[in-house]
Amino acid sequence: MSYITNSDVQTALEVTFSTAEGNAMTPVLAALELAANVYMGRSFGAGPQTEYFDGNTHMFVLSKGPATAITSIEIDDQAIEADDIHNYGNYVKIDYRATPGHQNVKIVYTCSADVPADIKQALVQWAANIFKSHKEGGKSISRVSIGPMSVDYKMSEKASEMPDFVRMVLDSYKLIAVI
Predict the structure, then answer these.
(1) Contact call for residues 127 and 165 (beta carbons, < 8 A)
(2) How much is the average pLDDT of 131-145?
(3) 74-78: long-range contacts (C-beta < 8 A, 24 or more apart)?
(4) Among positive and negative, which fits the CA dihedral 87, 91, 97, 100?
(5) pLDDT single digits (tens) 62-108
């Protein structure tokens, strides 16, 4: 599932891409999605998911959540009783500490979450900024004056760098490893 499509960007820009423009934008959209996932330390996806975790803890942060249902948890190939499993959406707790081990905890769960609307909008705007060919495309406004009208743009940001407005949205979804 792609977070955004060429159609989303075309709608935001109120344009229709030529075949060449559409072909050029497709890998850009995939790169923006990857950049967002790497920055957040997570991804979003619907359907069944399987993740492996190191043991010696009772709490596991899901990287593709939020989970709507936990199908199973196994520690060292031994199933955990459903009564011992507690689903909190983005993380799961069990009633006791898993045995120590590397990647010895297997969690199978289901997600029905679509990409949050604010992430989608931020990525569409970022893609639109990259697409735009006029001089302000891909830059952030740093100052606006009312009369006589003037607009200053941050020149330090390149169109390919993650803009501040995208970073601010993604920050609220960023997974932070607890050690």
Answers:
(1) no
(2) 56
(3) 74/105, 74/106, 75/99, 75/104, 75/105, 75/106, 76/101, 76/104, 77/106
(4) positive
(5) 988 789 999 999 999 999 999 999 999 889 999 999 999 999 999 99
Do the beta carbons of residue 124 and residue 117 sit within 8 Å?
no
pLDDT band at 132 (very low <50, low <70, confident <90, very high): confident
In the chain, the amino acid numbered 2 is: S
For tokens 């950049």, name the residue: 35
pLDDT-based confidence at residue 113 (cuts at 50, 70, 90): low
Q: Are 94 and 86 in contact (CB under 8 A)?
A: yes
